[in-house]
Structure formats: C-alpha cells, structure tokens
C-alpha cells in the first residue's frame, strides 16, 4: 500500500532503523558503563521526560509557537520578496547583495541585537526565526519563479497575459516544488535559531531548559529537553511534508 507516496515498507524500514539505534545505544552504554554526563541511556532519558513532562511540555509549546510563527512570517517574507524581484527585475541587483551579506553572518551573531530590540519574550525568537527562514525561502522561490522557459512566457503574452497573469498561472506553479524545498530547509533553520536564542535569553522554552540544566550540571534533563525538541521538530516536519504532498500533487 502507498499513502501519500510513502509505502508501508518505507515506514517499517524507518521503525526497524529506530529500534536498532535504540538497542545499540542502550546496549552500548550498559556494556561499556558510559557515564550519564557523557551519554545517558535512552530509557533513563525517556523516564526523565515522563517525570518532568509538565515543564517540558510547557517549554515545547512556547518553542513550537515561536518556531511556527517565525517560520510562517519568514516564508511569507521570502516568497513576497522573490515575487517582487521577478516582477521588478531592477530590484534584484540592489537587494540581493544585501540579503547575501546578512545571511553570510551566522544567525547567532544577531541574537544579542534581537534581544535588545525585541526583549526576552517571544518577539526576539520570532525575529530570529524570520531571519533564518526568509533568506533560504527567498533563494528557492526566486530560482523556481525563473524556471519557466522564455518561449512559454512569450506564448502567454501572445494571448494577452500580463505580468500578474503569467506569475499566477505559470511562474508560481512551476516554483512550488522549489518553494517547498526551501520551506523544508527553513523549518529546521527556524527551530535551531529559536532554541539558540532561548539559550541566550528567554523566560521559557526548550533552549532555556537546556541552559538552566547545563548550569545546574543536570545532564539528564539536558538530554530530555533535546530529545523532546527532536521529537517536536520531527512532528512539525512530518506535517509540512504531508501538506507538501497534498498541495503539490503534480510533483
């Protein structure tokens, strides 16, 4: 059977791979008596997540809200800028060097500025996610919008289509796979940006749990927060992939 392009065999392979990883991890740490501060046992991490589920769940909700909000805003900004650059070509040589220059600096370098400008609340984390997502979506959207061949564009113009009509009926459908790829990459970047920003200054969130637990030398709680963040990220990524397969059916 096939569900959304993924066969049950694929799902079984993933399940077997995860089970094998769990067994190797658990067995290796027990066999070699690896200290918890280096690599805790997965069962101990799972127990820590269950024991501290309330604060971890609350932190996941905060981090997830910041990530999703920044991701959506950043995606809209990226696609919007790409559309503007395609509709008004003279803007590209003016704006792209600035965008490249900003992206050339690691996003973590902007965290102190975001904390100063937007405070320790959600605003600074959302701003960092927007910065992390916007550029990669801009590049992919711009590349996709330029995919249609000039002959196809000229054909639509011969039937009286204007720039907006060509954009809506030709360029955007052609760009959707590239935009979807940018969104997938951008989602991971936004999660990283939010957690790093939380570690440097926040009232709540997974990053703050990691920071506080590290300061308290509670490495088991660090791993519990990291694993919870990984599972949350996988859930968000799975939702994005499902939407991608539903909307971009022709790919």
UniProtKB/TrEMBL annotation:
Alphabetical GO biological process terms: transmembrane transport
Cross-referenced Pfam families: BPD_transp_1
Keyword presence, Aminoacyl-tRNA synthetase: no
Alphabetical list of CDD domains matching this protein: TM_PBP2
Stated family: Belongs to the binding-protein-dependent transport system permease family.
Keyword annotations from UniProtKB, A to Z: Cell membrane, Membrane, Transmembrane, Transmembrane helix, Transport
Stretches assigned to the ABC transmembrane type-1 domain: 56-238
Gene Ontology cellular component list: plasma membrane
Major location category of this protein: membrane
Compartment(s): Cell membrane
Membrane topology category: Multi-pass membrane protein
Transmembrane residue ranges: 12-34, 68-88, 100-120, 126-145, 222-243
Record PROSITE patterns: ABC_TM1
PANTHER family the record matches: ABC TRANSPORTER PERMEASE PROTEIN HI_0355-RELATED, ALKANE SULFONATE ABC TRANSPORTER-RELATED, MEMBRANE SUBUNIT
Cross-referenced SUPFAM superfamilies: MetI-like (SSF161098)
InterPro entries linked: MetI-like, MetI-like_sf
Protein name in UniProt: ABC transporter permease
């Amino acid at each position: 059977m096939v569900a959304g392009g993924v066969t049950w065999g694929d799902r079984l392979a993933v399940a077997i791979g995860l089970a094998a990883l769990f067994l190797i991890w658990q067995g290796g740490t027990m066999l070699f008596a690896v200290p918890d501060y280096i690599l805790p046992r997965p069962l101990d991490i799972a127990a820590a997540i269950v024991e501290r589920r309330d604060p971890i769940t609350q932190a996941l909700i905060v981090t997830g809200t910041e990530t999703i909000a920044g991701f959506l805003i950043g995606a809209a900004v990226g696609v919007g800028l790409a559309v503007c650059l395609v509709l008004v070509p003279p803007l590209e040589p003016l704006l792209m060097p600035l965008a490249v220059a900003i992206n050339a600096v690691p996003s973590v370098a902007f965290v102190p500025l975001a904390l100063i400008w937007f405070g320790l609340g959600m605003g600074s984390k959302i701003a960092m996610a927007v910065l992390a997502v916007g550029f990669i979506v801009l590049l992919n959207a711009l590349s996709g919008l330029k995919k249609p061949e000039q002959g196809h564009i000229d054909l639509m113009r011969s039937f009286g289509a204007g720039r907006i009509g060509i954009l809506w009926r030709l360029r955007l459908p052609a760009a959707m796979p590239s935009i979807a790829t940018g969104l997938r990459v951008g989602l991971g970047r936004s999660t990283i940006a939010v957690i790093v920003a939380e570690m440097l200054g926040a009232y709540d969130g997974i990053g703050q749990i990691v920071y506080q637990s590290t300061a308290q030398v509670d490495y088991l709680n660090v791993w519990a927060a990291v694993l919870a963040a990984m599972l949350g990220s996988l859930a968000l990524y799975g939702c994005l992939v499902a939407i991608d397969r539903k909307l971009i059916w022709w790919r």
